Amino acid sequence: MSYNLLKGKKGIIFGALDEKSIAWKTAIRCHEEGAEILLTNAPVAMRMGEINKLAAIINAPIIPCDVSSNDDVLNLIVKAKEHFGGGVDFILHSIGMSLNVRKGKHYTEIDYGFNAKTLDISATSLHRVLATAMKHDAINQWGSVVALTYIAAQRVFPDYNEMADAKSLLESISRSFGYHYGVKKQVRINTVSQSPTRTTAGSGVKGFDGFISYAEKMSPLGNASADDCANYVVTLFSNMTKFVTMQNLFHDGGFSFTGVTADVIEQMGK
Ligand SMILES: NC(=O)c1ccc[n+]([C@@H]2O[C@H](COP(=O)([O-])OP(=O)(O)OC[C@H]3O[C@@H](n4cnc5c(N)ncnc54)[C@H](O)[C@@H]3O)[C@@H](O)[C@H]2O)c1
After folding, report:
1. Is residue 33, in this structure, part of any structural domain at all?
2. Does any ligand 1 atom lie closer than 6 A to the CB of residue 160?
3. Each residue of 85-113: pLDDT tens digit?
4. For a substitution probing ligand 1, which of 40, 159, 171, 199 has the most ligand atoms within 8 Å of its CB?
5. Is residue 38 within 6 Å of ligand 1 at its C-beta?
6. What DSSP letter does each residue of 120-158 carry, written as one string?
7. What is the CATH number of the domain that holds 157?
């Protein structure tokens, strides 16, 4: 169902890899709510070709951008302004990549070169996008930026590895830049902390099946799906949430504030 919440708005969506991606589902919901979208992803993701399907469904152009490259981000921002004939109203940062996880390195033995790359792609990239957008006045007044995060930024989930540190940094950048962009142009910046979700990035976490079932049992409402995450992000891009900024917003069925559930106690008693 559409409520026309984003009628007339224009936005950039990072990170749609395939149909399971949170960014993919968000792009479709934003389109249904009346927004015009520009899609972007790393050139390597582009080669897999799936994003072209999404572009055709929502009639969106695609501009490749490796978020760890200043030149790519600048090119994206300049081209987005040209395409829309001005600034955008929203940006979704839905990007995560850990080289140490990919290479199977334990947290206590990480490679620092990989680690620097992980932090750059998964966290500092938000700063790079915002700084470039600010310099080129590419986000309209009362614009909204959302980045996706995970509760491992606040609590230990051992196999989340260095991504926990990346998410802490991402949430901090969102708060700090939220202050500066808020003062300058009423642009609001938030992170959404999503339940574990079966996507390409999510499934890369060791023991993901156990992880997702545990979260399901520990959440009064159960795990939030990617579709529900997309709905929530739409509200944050809409004018209905104009004064929400610099927040880390849990979208996790209550997991973050649950100490234990009857289901888990029963399981432990066995
Ligand atoms: N899946 C989960 O369980 C879960 C839970 C909480 C938060 N998140 C977060 O949601 C976001 C989206 O992930 P997803 O689960 O939809 O998985 P996904 O694999 O579909 O998306 C990750 C995206 O990051 C992109 N990316 C990687 N390196 C890049 C680079 N250098 N430049 C530009 N893009 C790059 C990938 O191409 C991909 O599109 C991530 O920030 C992830 O950490 C996921």
Report:
1. yes
2. no
3. 999 999 999 999 999 999 999 999 999 99
4. 199
5. no
6. IIIIIHHHHHHHHHHHTT-EEEEEEEEEEE-GGGTS--G
7. 3.40.50.720
